[in-house]
Amino acid sequence: SLSLSLFYLSVSVSLSSPSLPPVSFILCTLGGGSSAAWPRRDEHRIQYTLLLPCRLWLPQLLTTSHPHPAMKILSTPSQFLEANFFDPSDYRPDSEIKSKNQFRIYDASNPRFDTVRQTYREMHESQTVAFVQAKHEQWCKFDKARMSVMEGLRMLNQLVDDSDPDVDIPNMVHAFQTAERIREVHPDKDWFHLTGLIHDLGKIMALWGEPQWAVVGDTFPVGCAFSPAIVHHDTFAANPDSQNPLYNTTLGQYKEHCGLDNITMSWGHDEYMYQVLKANDAKLPEEALACIRYHSFYPWHTGEAYEHLCGEGDEQALAWVREFNKFDLYSKADELPDVDALLPYYQGLIDKYIPGDLRW
After folding, report:
1. What pLDDT is recorded for position 337?
2. Could you tell me if 296 and 268 are in contact, meaning their C-beta atoms sit under 8 angstroms apart?
3. Is the pTM of the predicted complex or chain greater than 0.90?
4. Cα(300)–Cα(278) distance, integer angstroms
5. What pLDDT score does 156 carry?
6. So what's the pLDDT on residue 108?
7. 293 and 143 Cβ atoms separated by less than 8 Å
8. Contact yes or no for 161/85 (Cβ under 8 A)
9. What's the Cα-to-Cα distance from 169 to each of 33, 85, 332, rounded to whole Å?
């Protein structure tokens, strides 16, 4: 079946089969929640629902036999399931229900422990120097799409973090919550408001086929010993770099106090969005770029690790990242923001600092 609305083309494919068929489907996961990326199965029938944003992809589908680079060809059931999105680092509080020390709980008392630990296991076993270099080569060509920041945010509006016990709202709503909380406390820093709005926009990689362990979660340097301050640190045992004498010492491939700009971070949405902003000549100040690049670097800004790698200017960056973290982690409000009413203000900030269509 096929239905067309102003914004989305919805394609549903039902197959009468007792098992998943060995054929390829085009999948663009805009609904990381319960339906869009998941094959729904009853006893003898499987249904796939695909959502395609018309402005980006429908014209090209109608005019060429080559799919848009933002579309991912998936051929196995595991790839369909892998495309479903969740972020194990997002445990944001309701201030009336929990205190701050009740969040980011990574032990077995958390009902999501098994899922979260498996995600970090895959991340920690795979994020090597060679892996990160390959991801920079893959993603920093910026050939996945051309679209504006607001279009990217609308795509995030289809993502609901199913792992988060505190928030069942789309990422776009969290983006506006974070931005508005910053705006309340720092009304004169419009660049900081915009930073709150776009800080998670790099998660768009998950919609283009990147496995979630290479998109979400806490980040850390590669090329040196993995700090015990990293959550689920024991899962690094199977990382090849842990056995490599070039990388498994305190300094590894770096010099003491070389500065964070000179280290290689694990690959994820922080680094990708930072690279997107740099490549598109964003006019945001360095403080904003630091918040984008390091807001998931919890071993540093919360665990106080890797100080031996910090250099000139990193202490100032740390202060801003810590200030930003207050609004990112603890941004759930009693009332959801009126996104429609806020759009003109934030579109103005986008036009000021990151205008036009960006290369992604």
Report:
1. 86
2. yes
3. no
4. 23
5. 81
6. 54
7. no
8. yes
9. 10, 13, 10
- Average pLDDT per consecutive 10 residues, the chain (360 residues; last block may be shorter): 43 40 35 34 36 39 34 33 37 42 49 77 97 98 97 80 49 88 97 97 92 92 98 96 98 98 97 98 98 97 97 96 90 72 97 98
Whether the Cβ atoms of residue 47 and residue 1 lie closer than 8 Å to each other: no
The two most distant CA atoms of the chain are separated, in Å, by 63
| Token pair recorded at residue 204 | 């768009």
Strand partners, 74: 25
The DSSP code sequence of 280-314 is TT----HHHHHHHHHTT-HHHHTT---GGG--TTH
E strand spans, the chain: 2-4, 8-16, 25-27, 40-41, 45-53, 72-74, 146-147, 221-222, 264-265, 358-359
CA atoms of 300 and 303, how far apart (whole Å): 5
Which residue shows structure tokens 């010099």? 255
pLDDT of residue 159: 62
Assess contact for 26 and 73: CB atoms under 8 A: yes
Per residue, what are the HEC states of 22-38? CCCEEECCCCCCCCCCC
Q: What is the distance between the alpha carbons of residues 81 and 55, in angstroms, rounded to a whole number? A: 26
